[in-house]
Model the fold of this input.
Amino acid sequence: MAGKKEVEQIYSPLDYIFRRSLGATGDYSGALFGGDFSLSLAEAQRRKHERVVSALGLGEGDRLIDLGCGWGGLLAYARSRGISCVGVTLSSLQVASCNRMGFEVYERDCRRIDGSELGQFDGIASLGAFEHFCSVDECQDGRQPAIYHDFFRNATTLIPVGRRFFLQTMVFGPRMIPHEDIRLDAPRDSDSYALALMAWGNPGSWLPTGLDQILSCAAPGFAMVSAESGRLDYIETLDRWLAAFKRVDLAKYLAYGSVVLRHLFDGTLRRYADFLSINPNRVCFERQLLEHYRIVFERVA
Done:
């Protein structure tokens, strides 16, 4: 899985730039446009948060845990509705940012959180963290199903029977290619290179094979209530993020300069440049190498 070192590598360099571009509680997971691309990114993220709270059946006084809470976007919305929130993340800078805003957020591995540590809740949400639960090596060793089974088993201890879990995650899509064809030395416009670049930018992370794998691993503790594709919404979200990151801001551009200088000397600057220019996640969604789901589960056992 992506452990603390890998999570810090993925998210910590983004911390200041992200908050400067998208706000202190910006959400770094796919928004919910629902086909209405006239919405602003903030409106589409709020629509997603509304959907999460509604799907979980939460109201004032209820208790929510966000597994992989990022910079606290969902926590901020839920708090505005009078919902008591707890978040967990392995990113120390995300924890610090959330704590500064008064959120109860802990630096923990959300795969291993159970009811004995933080008690029970009225609902669980996890928006994008599931993508980091299994590594390439763990998948090739055949451990992916067991990792997901263990996570869902722990999650059953967080909510009582009859309560719900909202999971949003990328999975591999119908046009996914064999793992052995994914190479950083492949042509720049190839599926192989786009997937390799995406994997390079997300160390320690590998995706589920599809919705069916998630559902089978969630059983017997969780049954699916609903599932919908968010692939087109994610493509739009990626476009909005890129525009926000490019928006002129002197302080932000100084931060970009420090990132460039750091990677100029570690030999990875070309990869970072390719990552920004190619936008491999967008390419992979467009080509259906990736899919994206919003899944609502109910605890049944």
Notes: The CA atoms of residues 182 and 196 lie 5 Å apart. Residues 41-56 form the longest helix (16 residues). The chain has a mean pLDDT of 92.
